[in-house]
Amino acid sequence: MADEIGSDSAAAENEGTAASFTPIESQEALDRIIGERVARERNKYADYDTLRDKAARYDAAEAANLSEVEKAVKRAEVAEARARDLEVSTARAQVAAARGVPAGLLSGGTVEEFEASAEALLKFRGEQATPRAPRPDPRQGASTGPGISGANLTDWLRGELIK
């Protein structure tokens, strides 16, 4: 569609200039026509550099404002995360102190979860509190090296009696 519009306007220009067209007869005339055309094109973009500079300054200002907003949002997120961590640590310490269990052994993220964890630990510790008989050590009483037994015993006794 844009091609049709462009070609229609180009055809209209050709029709208007076709009746008044005079062939270029010298290099000076060609240079003058080309110079006029270049000047018309330059006039279209005469303020391009100033607009480009303004756009660059606007983009820089907007980026600075956006980065300030982003920095503020990031600081707020960090502060919220730190507050949540402190709340969890405080709850863990309170439950540990109230129940008498080490805070490092409590798991969870809420007071209810810490309470349940403390109950489980106390129940486990209650099961472990009953003393159990030690298992027998099969090595107990066994000789660890060359001792006096059997033939060595008789040799030793003879040596002691002869002295």
Tell me what the structure shows:
- It is a single chain.
- This protein has a domain at 28-128.
- The chain has five helices and no strands.
- Helix 3 runs parallel beside helix 4 (111-129).
- The radius of gyration is 50 Å and the shape is elongated.
- The chain is mainly alpha-helical and 163 residues long.
- This is DUF4355 domain-containing protein.
- Residues 1-25, 123-163 are annotated as: Disordered.
Quick recap:
The protein contains 5 helices and no strands. The chain is mainly α and 163 residues long. The model has no long low-confidence stretch (mean pLDDT 81).
Descriptors:
single chain, mainly alpha, 5 helices, 0% strand, DUF4355 domain-containing protein
Radius of gyration, CA atoms, in whole angstroms: 50 Å
Q: In whole angstroms, how far apart are the ends? A: 131 Å
Mean pLDDT: 81
Secondary structural class: mainly alpha
The number of helical runs is 5
Form type: elongated
- Low-pLDDT runs: none
How helix-rich are the residues, as a percent range?
over 70%
* Total beta-strand segments: 0
SSE arrangement, N to C: HHHHH
**Approximate strand percentage:** under 5%
Region (Disordered): 1-25, 123-163
Organism: Nocardia panacis
Protein name: DUF4355 domain-containing protein
Would you spell out the secondary-structure blueprint of this structure?
Layout: H1 2-19, H2 27-44, H3 48-99, H4 111-129, H5 151-162
Helix pairs in contact: 3-4
